[in-house]
Amino acid sequence: MQSVRIIPCLDVDQGRVVKGVNFINIRDAGDPVELAKIYDQAGADEIVFLDITASSDGRSTMIDVVENTAKEVFIPLTVGGGVRSVEDARKLLRAGADKVSINTAAIERPELVSEISAEFGAQCVVVAIDARRCDTSSNVLNKEGVYAWEVFTHGGREPTGIGAIDWAKRASELGAGELLVTSMDRDGTAQGYDIELLQEMSQNVAIPLIASGGVGSIDHLIEGAISGKADALLAATIFHFGIISIAEVKKALKENGVSVRPLQDDH
User: Fold this and answer.
1) For 119-249, where are the E strands, in sequence order?
2) Per-residue pLDDT tens over the stretch 97-117
């Protein structure tokens, strides 16, 4: 069994790490380079940086933050927000990112997924999907004609009318190496991942899934790995504010039969 990865997510706005609830009510959580360094030393398997206002503000991702982090951090670094072209991806990878995450630009021009994948390899391409459960007024249906999940763009601000499962399948076919699936309904709520969404995703795509949105306890992470069948577990609030440590998460997952990468102390 492949090891489930533990990934702290650093949402960056104006050069600071922030955290909100349902993509709003933002509060400061610290310096991105310092936090990334702490997580590297604490046993994180990867770090995800998301410049959460780059797309909505129409600007590029912060290259300097990536460069400074890459000098201090020695685990894979995924960076997203404002990536609109192969050249944008190239700049981030040259600055020290291992993968780029694309969201809004991929919805607006799906060929971008194929272009980045062809240029740098599928392993460098993470397609981020911000999904919200549809209400009865929505025309986004799944194959059974049941209200499903809709994709949102621009940091969760803009509805697309596109079904999340359909888009996941297409992104996979276009050359994405993995999917970062965030439940907007659960984001920052500490109520746990949207397991139904993860299960539906895992049944429809063969590429790795990173579960995101809603972690408030170790049980939620265990549930994401076992019931949600996620290949990686992403969290922010519990790590940023010292609620749970990465060591505690890995220990609990291991005790529940989930394969994890050992901490340095375990070697």
Assistant:
1) 125-133, 149-153, 158-163, 178-183, 209-212, 232-235
2) 999 999 999 999 999 999 999
